[in-house]
């Protein structure tokens, strides 16, 4: 955002700012609704969607107050949420027992029919978030690095490369867990056309049932962690735009 301010005239800056804010609001709406659905699942329907939206919006700002105690505290909270999300979806993955052979074939030799292209594009859209460009730039600036020392700059770049690679790998694994669970249960069935975020938990419960912990609640915990972390990062990125 600072680079845009330095390089572009006033009218262009406002156009870019408006586009970025609109895109961020669109992404945040999905994330807040996802978190609200998770709260409804975990409360067994006691809390309606509107209450979940209010809770998500409120605790989002409360969590952002952690930045007053240092960026590291905020990053630690994100790490907890992402770990919760990853463990929940990994648990679901283990509960459904997908075929390892078919999974590897799908990863190494991916094939898409005309019916699945729209969903594949949706997955790409979920992973690529434009506001993260601004967020990551701000996080880089939060590190104290002497730009006059090339060795320190190169060292920082190496760490950022490792950090980005690990983040992308974790994102890939989480998406793999979720996609595999639903593919195992519903690929090629009529139900596949009816599954959405609102009823996904119900379909999982009907297909895979209980276990040590019912899969519906595992899904709810993972969805809540995903919704909270995404909403907080989106809101935090919005503060950086300004």
UniProtKB/TrEMBL annotation:
- Which InterPro entries does this UniProt record tie to the protein? NRAMP_fam (IPR001046)
Where does the record say this protein resides?
Membrane
* Keyword Translocase (UniProt): no
Coiled-coil region(s): none
Q: How does it sit in the membrane?
A: Multi-pass membrane protein
Which superkingdom is the protein from? Eukaryota
Q: Give the molecular function GO annotations.
A: cadmium ion transmembrane transporter activity; manganese ion transmembrane transporter activity
| Entry keyword set | Membrane, Transmembrane, Transmembrane helix
Record-annotated membrane-spanning stretches = 47-66, 78-94, 120-139, 160-187, 207-226
- One Pfam entry for this protein is Nramp
Name the GO cellular-component terms.
membrane; trans-Golgi network
GO process terms (BP): iron ion transmembrane transport
Q: Which family does it belong to?
A: Belongs to the NRAMP (TC 2.A.55) family.
Write the protein's name. Natural resistance associated macrophage protein 2.7
Q: Which organism is it from?
A: Brassica juncea
Taxonomic lineage of this organism? Answer: Eukaryota, Viridiplantae, Streptophyta, Embryophyta, Tracheophyta
Gene, per the UniProt record = NRAMP2.7
């Amino acid at each position: 955002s600072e680079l845009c301010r330095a390089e572009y005239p006033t009218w262009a800056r406002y156009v870019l700012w408006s586009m970025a804010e609109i895109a961020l609001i669109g992404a945040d709406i999905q994330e807040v609704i996802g978190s609200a659905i998770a709260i409804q699942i975990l409360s067994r329907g006691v809390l309606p969607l509107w209450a979940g939206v209010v809770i998500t919006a409120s605790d989002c700002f409360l969590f952002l107050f952690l930045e007053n105690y240092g960026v590291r505290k905020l990053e630690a909270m994100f790490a907890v949420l992402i770990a919760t999300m990853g463990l929940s979806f990994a648990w679901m993955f283990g509960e459904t027992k997908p075929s390892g052979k078919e999974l590897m074939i799908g990863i190494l030799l991916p094939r898409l029919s005309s019916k699945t292209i729209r969903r594949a594009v949706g997955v790409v859209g979920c992973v690529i978030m434009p506001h993260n460009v601004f967020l990551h730039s701000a996080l880089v600036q939060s590190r104290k690095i002497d730009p006059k020392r090339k060795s320190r700059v190169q060292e920082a770049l190496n760490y950022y490369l490792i950090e980005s690679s690990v983040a992308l790998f974790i994102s890939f694994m989480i998406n793999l867990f979720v996609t595999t669970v639903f593919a195992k249960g519903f690929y090629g069935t009529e139900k596949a056309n009816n599954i959405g975020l609102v009823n996904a938990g119900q379909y999982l419960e009907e297909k895979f049932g209980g276990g040590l912990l019912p899969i519906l609640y595992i899904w709810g915990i993972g969805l809540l962690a995903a919704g909270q972390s995404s909403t907080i990062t989106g809101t935090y990125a919005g503060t950086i735009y300004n």
